[in-house]
Queue: 3 jobs
Job 1
Amino acid sequence: MKNFQHSFKRMFYIEQLKQVGITEVNKVPVQNLSDRDLLHALTIARIKAGA
């Protein structure tokens, strides 16, 4: 069950990044980012969108 939650969370983060137009970070596709980098990229995108 935990593995399913983990992969759902990753898919959610990736989809959220794609919706705001981010497909890669530092020339690395979002699918290849670590969980930490995905969350960081999504947080930064949300901050920029609100600024």
Note: The helical segments are 2-19, 35-50.
Job 2
Amino acid sequence: MLTKLFADIHDATKKVTEQIQDISSATQEISAGTEEMTATTENLKSTAAAAAANSAKVSEHVESQKATVVSTSDAANQLSTMAEQLQELISHFHVRKVD
């Protein structure tokens, strides 16, 4: 009977050891998954920061182009006014054919 008791204890200990190994294995898998998620999160963070920096650069370029367009428009208006004034000045001159 004592032998049966020791055999039962041995079997129970073996089962507990196997369960501990299973838990340890599962814990390692969870740890690996967590590390992978952390790396992915860092990549996303890095990508988001780069996108934000690029958006800021695009915004700066858009503002610069806007200023250039406004400046070009102003120059075109000034040129148009000058052309009208020149037409007015030229209209005072008459060309006659001399024989």
Note: The CA atoms of residues 53 and 93 lie 60 Å apart.
Job 3
Amino acid sequence: MLRESITILVFLEINNQRINNSSVSFGVSLPVENTFSAINVTYSYGQKGKISNGLIKENYHKISLNLCLDGIWFVKRKFE
């Protein structure tokens, strides 16, 4: 399963100037064989801030790895 998103957030305000954080993310979910579990891999590219009034601009790259465990955790067991 492929996933993508675009995000624009405002986290900080310094001297009445907003510091924006915008990013683009792409990811894929890979199922683990013979289970309901999956491995999720995501790549993000983003920018924080802007170059004006003595502020700085930061570009960043981010790779995330996530393991989603599912299956027998909450299954009611049957005994014979």
Note: The chain has a mean pLDDT of 83.
